[in-house]
């Protein structure tokens, strides 16, 4: 849909700031380097509303970062790399930059921020006191609460079939434990 040109990347960055303020919060276009070329195709989300309200690395990575990167890169044809900063809740989006493979992405090894979790879903999933509702839930609750496993062990390697893959991994690990 969009050819991966400097113009397309800068155009999308310019559109992101005014049209996604309601979703992610205040942001600004910033100059970035893509393949050795400086361009204004970066967007710095000063404090991501989604990340701040969820307080959950897993929700940020699995419900925002990976799907958004996948959509722009594979559906729109315009590469996008998102780099969340879990310390200050900011996020940098770079249009025109090919995202790293999941296993090479620093976000894939970011541990759970369980003492910061605010969302109902996160609090529910991280609570070790709750009874097992799903066959795979015990192992997830134990891992999340203990901060023993980085996200690499909990999230998909391939996006298209992520739900099935996660369930298969959790069920396999639950049998071992």
Q: For the record, give the distance between the C-alpha atoms at the N and C termini, rounded to a whole number.
A: 47 Å
Structural class comes to alpha+beta
Strand order of the biggest β-sheet: 1-2-4-3
Characterize the largest beta sheet: strand count, sense, and whether it forms a barrel. 4 strands, antiparallel
**Tally the helices: what do you get?**
7
Number of domains: 1
Regions with little confidence, pLDDT below 50 for 5+ residues: 125-163
Shape: globular
Which percent range fits the helix content?
A: 40-55%
User: Averaged pLDDT, please?
Assistant: 75
SSE pattern, N- to C-terminal: HHEEHHEEHHH
Rg calculated over all Cα atoms: 17 Å
Number of strands: 4
In percent, how much strand structure appears in the residues?
A: 15-25%
Describe this structure in words.
This protein is α+β, with helices and mostly antiparallel strands and 177 residues long. The chain has one domain. It contains seven helices and four strands; from the N terminus they run H-H-E-E-H-H-E-E-H-H-H. The chain has helices at residues 6-19, 21-24, 49-54, 57-76, 120-126, 137-146, 162-176, and strands spanning 27-34, 37-45, 80-85, 90-95. It has a four-stranded antiparallel beta sheet with strand order 1-2-4-3. One of its GO terms (molecular function) is isomerase activity. Keywords: Isomerase.
